Amino acid sequence: xxxxxxxxxxxxxxxxxxxxxxxxxxxxxxxxxxxxxxxxxxxxxxxxxxxxxxxxxxxxxxxxxxxxxxxxxxxxxxxxxxxxxxxxxxxxxxxxxxxxxxxxxxxxxxxx
Amino acid sequence: xxxxxxxxxxxxxxxxxxxxxxxxxxxxxxxxxxxxxxxxxxxxxxxxxxxxxxxxxxxxxxxxxxxxxxxxxxxxxxxxxxxxxxxxxxxxxxxxxxxxxxxxxxxxxxxxxxx
Lengths: 112, 115
Prior knowledge:
The complex is a heterodimer of chains A (about 110) and B (about 120).
Chain A: E1 5-7, E2 10-14, E3 19-24, E4 30-38, E5 45-50, E6 56-59, E7 62-67, E8 72-77, E9 86-94, E10 97-102, E11 106-111
Parallel strand pairs in A: 2-11
Antiparallel strand pairs in A: 1-3, 3-8, 4-5, 4-9, 6-7, 7-8, 9-10, 9-11
Chain B: E1 4-7, E2 10-13, E3 19-25, E4 31-37, E5 44-49, E6 56-57, E7 64-66, E8 76-78, E9 87-94, E10 105-106, E11 110-114
Parallel strand pairs in B: 2-11
Antiparallel strand pairs in B: 1-3, 3-8, 4-5, 4-9, 5-6, 7-8, 9-10, 9-11
């Protein structure tokens, strides 16, 4: 079973704060890393698909970076808003398998 | 709009009873997946199907069964052999099982509880 770790487990920030969290994964046999946002009572929604070492992707105030050599990805949110409150999941695809292995997620709560 | 529909949203199971969770997609995706989520845990794979009439066990398949008779449908049966079925169940699909360049699409989930 592949080990995919996300930290921190939960995060409380004030509106306007910038924040970041980490997804760690095996550094060998990397195929892709997916980031998802999962709001309460909704289905998980894809944010980014990252495939190349050094990848940087951006969607509005959210961006992500990828380091496959050391096995981590960072997700950044600039100027957090209450609507950013959600659980952020990463999913690693690799290690000889095309089936995603999910981390436990980081729960973000943005206080107005 | 294309998407994945899971039903019911909430389900209650009596001891010794089998229950079936529905998952339907109209995305024309070949691959479908069932995950289970418990508090404080990540999504754990129960079963997946690469193509119609084919399915494979995931990490926690014991006590569950599936079928894939139609491309659109991938129902999950929680059998009486599953001793701890209380959890949140999420169905997903992807273009094909090797399509890691595309993300998965998810349903809204079914919460199963024991009566």
